[in-house]
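Tokens help. One example:
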Amino acid sequence: MTDTRHGKTRTDDYAWLRAANWQAMFKDPSILEADIRAHLEAENAYMKAAMADTEAFQKALFAEMRGRIKEDDSSVPMKDGAYAYGTAYRTGGEQPYFFRIPRDGDLNDPDLRAVLLDGDKEGEGKAYFDLGGFFHTTDHSRALWSYDDKGSEFYTIKVRDLASGNDLDDVIENSGGGGVWALDGRSFFYTEVDENHRPSKVYHHILGTPQREDRLVYEEADPGFFVGIGGSLLDDFIFIDVHDHQTSEVHIIPTDTLDAAPQMVAKRETMVEYDVTEGGDVFFILTNDGGAKDFKIVEAPVAAPGKANWKEVVPHQEGRLILSHMAFKDHLVRLERLGGLPRIVIRDRKSGEEHAIAFDEEAYALGLQGAQEYDTDTIRFSYSSMTTPSQLFDYNMATRERTLLKTQEVPSGHNPDDYVTRRIQAKAEDGELVPVSLVYRKDTPLDGSAPCLLYGYGAYGISIPASFSTNCLSLVDRGFVYAIAHIRGGKDKGFAWYENGKMFSKKNTFSDFVAAADALVAENFTSYGKIVAEGGSAGGMLMGAVANMAPEKFSGIIAAVPFVDVLTTMLDDTLPLTPPEWPEWGNPIASEASYDYIASYSPYDNVAEKPYPAILALAGLTDPRVTYWEPAKWVARLRDKTTGEAPILLRTNMDAGHGGASGRFQRLEEIALEYAFALKVSGKAES
């Protein structure tokens, strides 16, 4: 196939791998064209043969990683009204179950648990099954729940009567997976996903009526915008969030007037984002409006929330990126990042006094769960580092008392004192300092002899936390240094860190990653040819780019669902997610400059005759985000062009989508394959 744009022609010898009926195939994978299925299955067989000498090792790795999981693990239930709700697993179970106990019941008494939804039971017999969510009514009588059994992210919603445990006749197809109940529990709102996999409509469903009669509440005509819905802790508003990657608009519906037309808070302005949460008689709004690049928080009266009435509460501070906010009766809570590290800040709504919850480690991760009730002084958060297992705390915002609720158990044993976590700074090409978080055993020699797995993502402003992972211990305990490069394209060092890794600055992401590899070598953590690079999705694009830029520096590359055919995808506005992606990468249809810039780094377009390192690419047949044909085409072209002997492998999960296998142990099997590959190309594979 040839394609000519802006007077430039490209030829694609592997375009035939894109199924003509791909949209229908996502909903029914059995209709995949025979020649394409044969090709993917042949690639799977080739990969299996190439990795045959590690099969026993993969089983050992799987058993090892499974041994670090508390199989009957349970969340600490969160209080909401008369009950506390939680999730748990059974020993051997792949899927969670949802339960509740009386509000003040003993959290450790399993006999108090009323099982509301059993994921293992619902997913029985299905090759793929993903629970999208579980949302109960205000009166606790019903819940809506959703599932995807193809991996294509078209979710089915059902409604469960919590007293009987039976589902009602109501069934919603092709939803985004979430929903918000009306206050009376007799109806709910949901988003519908269109044939291009874009949530573009909000509907109101009344129980007992067919989906075809649902009332259309909101429809977004711009193909570059997604629609989402959310509720409020006071159950007084339903929020309709309309957004792309850099612009947002919020509409609200009061729950006491369900038929009211959605009220716009502030009209969308390109590059202006805002997010609304309720605060009694005011809304608290997190926004970058007015040049607040790292965001500020304003408030506006509920009766008149327009921008003219926005009043600053937390001012913009350059370099302090406010990530999210929550409001409670007496306190305003925000999660922010300062100096590359997260922190939680509590603000007294009356006095304006603030304090931060303090932590001591050099690098760590925080998660803010908040609470399910508005009138509370207690919020919940999690803490971990690359050596410290996750800890869950309740925190009293008034007394500042911190209560440890749970520490992640590692049944096979884990001694944090056996490991070291560090954060170093890598100097990028333009002088910027790129943080690199790493963990290794204390007895690992730091003389350049250790292999290293270097992970990176670098897109959409997503920051990769320096959190605890039991899985990576399988590498670290075998002498690896495990490192995360906090490269531009994420927001690890503020919003500017994101801006300088997107659009016409995208190449900074790739050179930052190479700089991280160089720094690890310079400080003797590893050596060139001993580094295995890993990334997925947009991080898979990173993998493809660095494979072209500096193949000699890596012994292997693991690219999961890699977005590698960037130019072709951004030129095709019929694909599910292309228009919403233009603010991130550029629109090569309309702009020749964007075309030329994307063409200069698009991994598939820049594969050349050179020796490539060993590569393992992973794909999902029903993946709507990175379609299966991107990694399939990339591997075919790599194998055709490479002048080296290193294996180039593709594994397509024929029963899954973007996230890979859905079960928790099934996912471990995929990680065992990835780690076996990393250990093999590093000369550390065991039989």
